[in-house]
Every structure is written in C-alpha cells, then in structure tokens.
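so my prof wants the structure for this chain in the tokens format not the other one, which i didnt know existed until like an hour ago. anyway here's the sequence
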Amino acid sequence: MTSGTVFTSPPPTPSAQVDNLALLIDNSKTINHLIQIHAALLRRGLDHHPILNFKLQRSYSSLGHLHHTVTLFHRTPSPNVFLWSAIINAHHAHSDRALSYYAQMLAHPVRPNAFTLSSLLKACTLHPGRAVHSHAFKLGLASDLYVSTGLVDAYARGGDVVSAQKLFDTMPQKSLVSSTAMLTCYAKHGMLREARLLFEEMEVKDVVCWNVMIDGYAQHGYPNESLLLFRRMMGMKVRPNEITLVAVLSSCGQLGALESGKWVHSYVENNGVGVRVNVRVGTALVDMYCKCGSLEDARKVFDVIEGKDVVAWNSMIMGYGIHGFSDEALRLFHEMCCVGVKLKPSDITFVAVLTACAHAGLVRKGWEVFDLMKDRYKMEPKIEHYGCMVNLLGRAGRVIEAYDLVRSMEVEPDPVLWGTLLWACRVHNDVSLGEEIAEFLVSNDLASSGTYVILSNMYAAARNWVGVAKVRSLMKGSGVEKEPGCSSIEVDNRVHEFVAGDLRHPRSKDIYSMLEEMNGWLKARGYTPNTDVVLHDIGEQQKEQSLEVHSEKLALAFGLISTSPGTAIKIVKNLRVCLDCHAVMKMVSKITGRRIIMRDRNRFHHFENGSCSCGDYW
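here's what i got, hopefully its the right format
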C-alpha cells in the first residue's frame, strides 16, 4: 500500500441506486425538489423504471400538480396495472376522468387489481359505483377488504343506505375505514340510533369516528348528546381536531351554553393540538358567541380573524341582526361591501341584512336592500329572501302588502313562507286572511303543527272557542302535536331545561319559593298578569296560575337562586316569548339590577333596567 492511495466508497449497485432515489421521491416536500429528482432520473435513464415512475406520478399528484402526473403517464410506454391504478387514484376528485382512464385500461388490455378498483370507487357516484360493483364480482375481487370498503363508501356517499348496510353486514372482516364509512352514512341520514350502536361496537375509534358522531348529533338537533359525547372523548384522552371543535361550538350555540363555548375557545388558544383560530374556527366561535348572547365576545373574535371570508362576515352581520342591533348590522354590511372586489355579498348576506331590517321594522331600508341585491349584485331572490321580506312587512302590519308580494313571486311559496304570513295575520288580528291561508295549507297537505297552532291561537284571541275546538279536533285527527314550550339555562357548565309547571328539577322546592318571592316583588310594583295571552277557555284565576309557571319564569327563578348577584342571566326559549313573560323579565331586570338575556325562536331580548333591546317590537 503506498502513501498516495485514496480510499473511496464503491459506486452504489443499480438496486441500491433505485432504492435511494425511491426514498428521495417519497421524502419530497416541495415541487422544486421533486422536479430536481425527476431531472436526475432522466440523466440516468431511469425515467421509465416502473417503481420510480410510479412513485414520481404519485408524488406529483400529492403535491397538487396533476398535470405533471398526466404528462408523465402519457409518456410511459406500456404502463402496468400499478401505473394505471395510480393515474386513476390521482383523479379521485374527477369522476368522469377516472372512469375514462379505467375504460382505457380495460381496452389495452390490463387486468385491474384490488387497488385499481378501490382507487376507482373513491371517484364513483352511485350509478357508476353499482357498475364497478358488478365488475368486481366478475373479477373475483368483491370480497377484498379494500374493494368492499370502497363499495360501502360509494353506496353511502350516494345515499343508498340499504345497499351500504347490506354490504357492510355481509363483510367477513371489517376495518376501521369500512366501519367509519358506514357510521358516516348513518349519521348523514339522521339514523343516529343505528350510528350510535355501531359506534359503541367499534373496538378501535380514532378522532374521525368521534367527529362523525359528535357532528351527527349537532347537525340533527341533539346538541346535548353532542356535548356529552365530546366530554367522554376528552375523558378518554382522544385529542380533538378542528372538525371536532367546530361541531362542539355549533352544539354550544344551539343550547346557548356560553360557559362550555368559552371553555372550547380557551382550549383552542391554549392547547397545541394543531388547532388554531383560523377562519373556520373563528367563524364557528363568532356564531357560537352570537347565539349564546355575547355579542362583545363575538366581535372581539371577528376583529382578529385574518383573511375573513364572506361566511365570517355573514355570521357577524346575522349576529347583530338577531340581537336587534340593526344599525350595527347595516354598518358592517356597508363595510363589507367596501372591502374590495374579491369579497362580494352572498345570498346568505342578504338574508342576514333583511333579518336585521325585519327586527327593527325598517321597511324602506329593507326594500332598498332587496332591490340592491337584484340590481347591483344581479342575484335572483330565493325563497329565503322573499320570506325575510314577508316577515318584515308582516311585522310592520303591512299584511296585505306581504300577501301581494307572495302572490307575485316567481318562485313557488313554501309552507315556511305561508307560515310567516299566517303569523303576521295572528299578530295583527287579520282572522279572515288567516283562515284563507290556513285552509289553503290544509287542503294542499302543506300544513304543519305550527299552522294549526297559529290558527287555534287566532280563534282563541277572538274568543272563538268553537273554532279552537274545531282546530284541535283536526290536529288530533291528523296526528299533529303542538310543540311544547321549553326553556333552558346554563349554570356551572350544565344545561338545565324546564317546561311549564315543571317539578322534575332537584331544586324544584327552591325554584317555586323564588317564584313566590318574584310574584311579591312584581305585585308590590303594580304588576298585573296579562291573562289575554292564555288561550284557553278557563277562569281568570286559573289563567294567572298558568302564567306563573311558564318555562321561562322557572328558568329565571333557577338563575336567580343559582348565580351570584349582579351576574347576567341567559335563557334560551324554543318558542316565541309571551307578552306576559316579556313584561316580567323587564320588571325583574330593574328590581334585581341584573341583565337578563333571552333567546327565543325569533330573536334575542336584552332586558336591562326595566327595558328591552327589542323596544317591545318582536
């Protein structure tokens, strides 16, 4: 050995070289890096190597450069089944293209494998999915776990619950993916009982499974169950993600559970779980705070959201609208219109602005906004916009004008719109037009429970007890039941619900003692019960007793005994608050020095020092 000898590593073997390049492709995080590797393959004559070509196509696709994937594929001579499967998989968001590549593959001919079919099924709508199912049988691949999972998912996405369930039940082996696909199918279609049974049977549950159930409950009007499941999820140390928290915030908003919503907000800000206050989470927080009666918190979040989209603006505008702060809603709408050409109002924006006008009786402004939508933004009004205008006109007592608008509409009025007009007839005692509308709805099988209730209330207000009895007989014969009034209040992160005359609460004795004390305060200040709102043919004393135990008064009494003096009391009512309860809330706010915030079916009422934010217009 001489002193001048230089030791160098031997050149890598061809196999090792391919392995190194394959690893580089898999680890590429940027398109520039991937292009450099592609250039190296071309220099070494390895651009048609089946493994490297496959990985290269897949990486181009994953980095969002589908056109490079397509170009590379078409330059590949005699692609094998893996390359065909890769190009089909790359087009999973483009059903027609994926199916076209599959047809070309069969024509070459190249026999599909399980990966091919499972990739194709990601792109399939219902009808092509059924055809692929038949083809899977012919190829002997229908029982493959990945293929059968893809089929369940395709049927579920297409809304064919029966086929999805039948296929799922016959699968000899079920993966987490197939179970999640079936779970999603159930939840999407409101089959929450079936979804929960499957969920509880699953031995392994990832965050996606929890999200499906939590969001399913939130989307279908079971916010309590959604929050209970979320708490169980946290107890099992499963980390929530953005989807989880958006669903939970929706549930908090539905319940008016401000304390729980604030806890979620704090969790988002203080836990490094990959969730931050981005536009989506920020908008969910704005919506939650608005629905929980805390406009101040909603505006604080809204102001710090970066890159606000139209959905974020809509949430804040609607928040101001339902709280009755119409000037702020209109000011924010004007600000949004001035932000720039990229941020144009949507149809939901105009629903929010027209809602704000309706709650303040701004008829002229409402017409201006309605015309602005058509003339400047070239939007054809939808049924929701007409509904807002009918609501605006009806509230303002312009019932005939509202009726004329309905008859002149180019779109077919739906039962909700007719119900809005019927309610205006009830408020302004137009019994004749109300009867005409109700008869139309009943005869055309469009009547809801609300139709019968409003008509019954109209008769009762006119002391037409025969008419009331007739309507109730119709309701009974049609199997229609009146929705019971229910009020809820959140105390110490728990939501307490009450119905009229409720005795189920553990603190009922204390609640009714507080009711008696409240009645003493009220009578000492000249309060007289508004028995006109009791729409039953009973004696005056019975009417007064009926008023005393309305659900919102029980919630108020519970709030007074369960929270510290000076604390704001927030109540959620599922129906419209009655005139008597509205008057009582105003008086109690002055007597106790407490702010009382109530959300009823139509809007928010902020009671403070004896007055209400609605100005007695609601």
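also thought this was worth mentioning. The chain is about 65% helix and 5% strand.
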